[in-house]
């Protein structure tokens, strides 16, 4: 096996180990372990509605996974996609309520506004990192709290429908909502948008000068600077792009899946995007499979909680194991070293 396939095999091994341990846990806590495992593995694919649920959940994960993977590619451990996803959803919801446009322009304007707001807000930790070397992890996590607080204020005091019996906004204009693609499911045109975005991100990252500079800055910032690259501008650029994608994801999710804005807490998709990016090894195309896998096991866990005696929280254990093994650089490294040695001997 060639070294270039090592990470694919390593990721597959991590997933299999995590699932194997999950099956052991299910066997220990369930009175009918085989039936519970069958539900977990089969139910997400059992009906058109369940398949739709997997794809619906994968759409926001693809957006945030793609955004975070670009940041990780530049060696920037930024987790700000969570706050950007939420706040851009608030912006899109505001325009969906108060604007009156046709069914093409209305979602286009709302999504574009949310995306641009996401880009501008993401630039702030980018500038702090580029100019003053402020730790991007700390600044992005603080921004998550700030954006959530402002967004919740807007929801409660500017958008909230007082006649509703919950903390939700007024209803969106019908023209602002995204079209459903498949009858019997809630799969919407956001799926097409994110797939086009993934193709564009792959082309940008591997076929353009700016993408090359992002990859070089991530590999070795000092060497990139020595080579004449303006790494400060590269850091700000990748933050702008990632913020635009995360903001678009929040806007698309709100207009595609809801008729009102109803997030009274951070939805969690931004932090999940980090797990998707890790599984995808920061490769845009691999984000699709990673997002679908994560959505698949979550829908499986939900079905298992409904129809068996195993709680859905079990899936948190699977995710934790995946993160631990993926982030362990020494996991299977001996095998990689052995392959490198064999290739070197063949080339002698």
UniProtKB/TrEMBL annotation:
Keywords: Cell membrane, Membrane, Transmembrane, Transmembrane helix. It is a multi-pass membrane protein. GO terms for molecular function: transmembrane transporter activity. One of its GO terms (cellular component) is plasma membrane. The chain crosses the membrane at residues 12-30, 50-72, 84-101, 107-128, 137-155, 187-206, 234-258, 314-332. It is found in: Cell membrane. InterPro entries: ABC_transp_permease (IPR001851). Coiled coil: none annotated. Its main location: membrane. This is ABC transporter permease. It comes from Paenibacillus oryzae.
């Amino acid at each position: 096996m060639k070294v270039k396939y090592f990470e694919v095999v390593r990721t597959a091994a991590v997933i299999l180990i995590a699932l194997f341990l999950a099956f052991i846990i299910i066997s220990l806590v369930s009175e009918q372990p085989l039936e519970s495992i069958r539900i977990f593995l089969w139910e997400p694919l059992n009906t058109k509605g369940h398949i739709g649920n997997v794809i619906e959940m994968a759409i926001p994960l693809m957006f945030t996974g793609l955004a975070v993977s670009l940041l990780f590619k530049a060696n920037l451990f930024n987790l700000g996609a969570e706050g950007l996803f939420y706040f851009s959803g608030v912006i899109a919801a505001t325009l969906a309520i108060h604007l009156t446009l046709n069914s093409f322009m209305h979602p286009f304007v709302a999504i574009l506004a949310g995306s641009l707001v996401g880009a501008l807000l993401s630039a702030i930790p980018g500038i702090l990192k580029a100019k003053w070397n402020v730790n991007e992890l700390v600044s992005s996590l603080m921004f998550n709290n700030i954006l959530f607080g402002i967004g919740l204020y807007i929801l409660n005091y500017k958008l909230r429908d007082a006649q509703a019996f919950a903390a939700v906004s007024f209803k969106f204009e019908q023209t602002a909502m995204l079209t459903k693609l498949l009858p019997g499911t809630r799969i919407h045109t956001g799926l097409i948008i994110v797939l086009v975005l993934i193709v564009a991100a792959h082309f940008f990252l591997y076929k353009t000068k700016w993408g090359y500079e992002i990859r070089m800055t991530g590999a070795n910032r000092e060497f990139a600077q020595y080579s004449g690259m303006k790494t400060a501008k590269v850091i700000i650029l990748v933050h702008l792009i990632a913020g635009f994608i995360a903001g678009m994801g929040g806007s698309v999710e709100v207009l595609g899946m809801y008729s009102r804005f109803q997030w009274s807490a951070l939805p969690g998709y931004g932090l999940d995007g980090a797990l998707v990016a890790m599984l995808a090894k920061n490769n845009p195309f691999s984000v699709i499979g990673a997002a679908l896998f994560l959505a698949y096991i979550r829908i499986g866990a939900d079905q298992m909680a409904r129809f068996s005696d195993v709680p859905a929280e079990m899936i948190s254990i699977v995710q934790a194991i995946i993160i631990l093994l993926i982030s362990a650089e020494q996991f299977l490294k001996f095998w990689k070293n052995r392959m490198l040695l064999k290739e070197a001997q063949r080339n002698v």
